[in-house]
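Teaching assistant here, posting this on the class forum so everyone can see the example we discussed in section. The complex has two components, and the goal was to see what a joint structure prediction looks like when all of them are supplied at once.
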Amino acid sequence: MMKPINWMRVAGLALGLAAGSMAHAYDGLVEKKVFTIPSFTTVGGKTIRNVRIGYETYGTLNAAGNNAIFVAHYFSGNSHAAGKYKASDAAPGYWDSVIGAGKPFDTDRYFVVSADSLVNLSTKDPNVVTTGPATIDPDTGRPYGMRFPIVTIKDFVVTQKALADALGIKKFVAVTGASMGSLQAMEWASSYPDMVERVIPVIPGGLEANPYLIAVADEWAMPIYDDPKWNGGDYYGRDEPLHGVAEALKLVTISSRAPGWSQRTFGREFAVAGADPVASWDYKYKVSDALDKAGAARAGFADADSFLYLVRANQTFRIGQGATLEEGVARIKAKVLAIPASSDRLLFPEYTTTMLDDLKKHGVVTELFTIPGDGGHLDGVTDIAKAGDAIRAFLAK
Amino acid sequence: MMKPINWMRVAGLALGLAAGSMAHAYDGLVEKKVFTIPSFTTVGGKTIRNVRIGYETYGTLNAAGNNAIFVAHYFSGNSHAAGKYKASDAAPGYWDSVIGAGKPFDTDRYFVVSADSLVNLSTKDPNVVTTGPATIDPDTGRPYGMRFPIVTIKDFVVTQKALADALGIKKFVAVTGASMGSLQAMEWASSYPDMVERVIPVIPGGLEANPYLIAVADEWAMPIYDDPKWNGGDYYGRDEPLHGVAEALKLVTISSRAPGWSQRTFGREFAVAGADPVASWDYKYKVSDALDKAGAARAGFADADSFLYLVRANQTFRIGQGATLEEGVARIKAKVLAIPASSDRLLFPEYTTTMLDDLKKHGVVTELFTIPGDGGHLDGVTDIAKAGDAIRAFLAK
């Protein structure tokens, strides 16, 4: 196993993220495993051969196969949800504060599984295994580029179902995930209602992408389309559109944060002491400088085309992926605990309110716990421990 | 007077804005006038010769010169706050619903003045008169480009003070403005405390730019910097960076709107019926298509460098433009009525809360009226009539 890239750490170095929520490591060492689907047919009817996805597991599946929990990851994340690959890793997986022995997702009781999504962003992270536009198309021997089929959140879930079957999982105690992970969690409950007892969508995106989110995601994608090096998606083996990807990831970071965090972390400090942006175009504020650097640092591990596929998957999300929202919602049998973040400026708490209203109309039993804080959307990743008791109680019901 | 460009109409055509708030025209016809400052020294100590700014007035100044109201405009706006240039104009000025005979800013009683800002965005609108990077530098005979001095919100206000003096105004009953106009209004109260009785900041940006706003404004500017045609700001007389400007204005529009408006106006409709974005990269959602078109339509009237100067002016805003916030706030003598919009996703209502807390600490008498709605930031422009009674009552105090 190669040296892992810890995204929270990359972002944290530049952005001064508190490391408090990462203090407790998963007890055992974890490893990335690989699952292969020889032939996968997308919801849209396209066939992809040799789909490979990485996954991690924490804990042990019981004989009945009914003590599993699935954790779907967020937009720029991957399946490293908990633990360390090596004891010397700087930080454990992103939700380690709630996954482990004695923790809310208790690995002494549950078998926790997470998987890298299709079209995962971080194709250059050696610990990510995914299939997407950067993958070699077996028919041509070259990367797919934008010829890769458009995939949906439901496609992500179908691959996860194949993995669950292969692992012998019969029932999920819960399916959970933050942000884009919350969409997958809700889709699980609709696609496989008899297999999912509970859903815990964190910083939820609702039951379909709000048109405002569609517009914001367009913003994110724009610098990639506008980078001449993007070249219609055919840049593999050449000078890649790193600037566009860096700007795109900067936009993601801004969307994922909030005024309180910005004020607390940077205030109105200048990037260089004494260099007031009023005086020269060469001067900037510390917040601008830090976000530039964080975007650039992450761009080196990311794939431009995969970013565009992820944007499209989020924009096209509607639970069930059918002609109406209702038919997707009506299939749900699971109980739902929604966990928005109070200061979320991307997937606003009002998206959760709308979702819960729609679920209740269809007779779904719902609960709500709001993560307090001023960190914005990312509080659902960094501060998930604040919801630990709510998760514990919900799993006991 | 040439045919006026009504920005609300340009945006409205593409974005389906309700025209309700524009139904009542200012009673008389108005005209754009021009005020000239032969030599203007910026707060930063740079001298600009022959500063020309356009302005409009509604109503009549009384003999004592103490019945004036100043209206500062928003980022992409100009001094056409009320009335029509010609009876056949499609729509009146943007705040016509509250400026006019018998309206809250009652032109039977008050002399209402508005002025085009320095570095105004819409240099190609024949009804905008401004001085900025697109202006010919008398020293070189060529447009300044990025050699124009960096200017601040306080500089805007200093030009407005010179105009007020020239008009014979001794005292303002109120200084008001939406968004960037709110910054100017607050600056007026700090720079000229004995001249300002009341301030009415609408969709307020607070007393200094929050670092989160600094980051969001960086986002807006990015597509211009990244457009190869921008060429370091020297594009005058050549092929201009229209794509960058269009993308920048699209970002401004998204920031100025909100989920409720997006849902109500577009829902998840496709740009072309039956053309589902799941099926092809050629297909998009109606919201994306409308925002693309609105950005492109506005880009033809806007100047790229001026956009960058406006971004910088907003980012560097601190009331008083001094070393500390306190010294700027401490000078204020005016009463303040703050009017945020409940669904504002750009200048969040929490910026108003922070501002009012800071003002109260310094003994300023404050009031708050929140515009209800789901339209986002732009509700402060389109739905100002909802605050009409609050404004009327405040002016009577």
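For the discussion questions: The first helix of chain A runs from residue 7 to 15. The CA atoms of residues 190 and 331 of chain A lie 5 Å apart. Think about how each of these relates to the inputs above.
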